[in-house]
Design brief:
By secondary structure, the protein is α/β, with parallel strands linked by helices. Helices cover 47% and strands 14% of the residues. It is built from eleven helices and eight strands. Strand 4, helix 4 and strand 5 (113-116) form a beta-alpha-beta unit. Helix 7 crosses helix 10 and helix 10 (237-251) crosses helix 11 (260-267). The chain is globular, with a radius of gyration of 19 Å. Bound molecules: acetoacetyl-coenzyme A and NADPH dihydro-nicotinamide-adenine-dinucleotide phosphate (NDP). NADPH dihydro-nicotinamide-adenine-dinucleotide phosphate binds at residues 10-15, 33-35, 38, 89-92, 96, 117-119, 140-141, 143, 235-236, 239, 274.
């Protein structure tokens, strides 16, 4: 199936990045969000990054103009009626995601593929609220999307080979590297990454070391590009907590219990870089 028109739902940090790379690769993209301010901010950020790419001579001025012309901010989910693929990137919450998928199932054409950028939630459960579970799939991009090469492609129980192949082909077209994984809590990326981040938070919580020193140990000792606490702030502490909860509930194993300090920060509204405060403070 040829994918031409794509809708990305959620103009947060992931949705914005996904919309940009799709438009840069020639897809016609609706970026959908109920919040017009979030859409405006996302459009500005994408334009800024494209301008920087022109300055660095990675793309031409006309590539930038063409990309921007392919990007359409949208506040109506019904714009998905002309789309061949929808990539959902709203908050990591099953209730919110299943509501979006159930609505999309009614709006989109019969042939359309419905993908989720969920970082941990079961694709099979999301697919079950639609009448097309064979066309529902996980397409898990990494943050920051324009930079990171990996896309985890997650097969739900009923995902068809045809759907998998269409998404694998598109991932290659986006100049990303696809990796096929099965539908288990946290898939591969976050089953491995998030317990490491959670453990780093425990070392601060238990007074083993300071935030800065934990990050230094992992940066200089393990050559990680960012320390785990900087990375947690970058991902979003709410997202980190939701993922730990999915692992904890999904496996029923106490080794995945979220650190109380992580819970406390999220309750305080300290969500990391996006809210201006997490383990570190950020200028707005
Ligand atoms: C939670 C999940 O479900 C899954 C996940 O995504 S887990 C998170 C996975 N991501 C990571 O682990 C990221 C780890 N960090 C890194 O790789 C690097 O620190 C980084 C790529 C983010 C920044 O790299 P850096 O060398 O430290 O900084 P910097 O030189 O400023 O940036 C390198 C390039 O990335 C770009 N970049 C940095 N942050 C960016 C962002 N948020 N959005 C877009 N581009 C960005 C910069 O513009 C720069 O591009 P140019 O070459 O055009 O200048
Ligand atoms: N952060 C990361 O590093 C990664 C995140 N992901 C996944 O991507 C998805 C989005 O994460 P991210 O972009 O970081 O999150 P953000 O917090 O940046 O954005 C969340 C988006 O969800 C929307 N949203 C929030 N609440 C609701 C609701 N009740 N109904 C509908 N939409 C809602 C927000 O809309 P509004 O603008 O209106 O508030 C916003 O567009 C999550 O599933 C996350 O797990 C995947 C890979 C990496």
């Amino acid at each position: 199936m040829a994918i031409k028109n794509v809708m990305v739902i959620g103009a947060g940090q992931m949705g914005e990045g996904i919309a940009q790379v799709c438009a840069q690769s020639g897809y016609n993209v609706f970026l959908n969000d109920m919040n017009e301010q979030a859409l405006e901010k996302a459009m500005k950020n994408m334009e800024k990054r494209l301008t920087r790419a022109v300055e660095k001579e990675r793309i031409t001025e006309s590539d930038k103009t063409d990309t921007l012309n392919r990007l359409h901010p949208s506040t109506k989910l019904t714009d998905a009626e002309s789309c061949d693929l929808v990539i959902e990137a709203v908050v990591e919450n099953m209730e919110v995601k299943t509501k979006v998928f159930s609505d999309l199932d009614k709006i989109t054409p019969k042939h359309a593929i419905l993908a989720s950028n969920t970082s941990s939630l079961p694709i099979t459960e999301i697919a079950a609220v639609t009448n097309r579970p064979e066309q529902v799939i996980g397409m898990h991009f990494m943050n920051p999307v324009p930079v990171m090469k990996l896309v985890e492609i997650i097969r739900g129980l009923q995902t068809s080979d045809e759907t998998y192949q269409a998404i694998e082909e598109m991932t290659n077209k986006l100049s990303k590297v696809p990796v096929e994984v099965n539908d288990f809590p946290g898939f591969v990326a976050n089953r491995v990454l998030m317990p490491m981040i959670n453990e780093a938070i425990y070392t601060v919580y238990e007074g083993v070391s300071s935030v800065e020193d934990v990050d230094t140990v992992m940066k200089l000792g393990m050559n990680h590009p960012m320390g785990p606490l900087t990375l947690a702030d970058f991902i979003g502490l709410d997202t980190c907590l939701y993922i730990m909860e999915v692992l904890y509930e999904g496996f029923g194993d106490s080794k995945y219990r979220p650190c109380p300090l992580l819970r406390k920060y999220v309750k305080a509204g300290w969500l990391g870089k996006k809210s201006g405060r997490g383990f570190y403070q950020y200028e707005s």
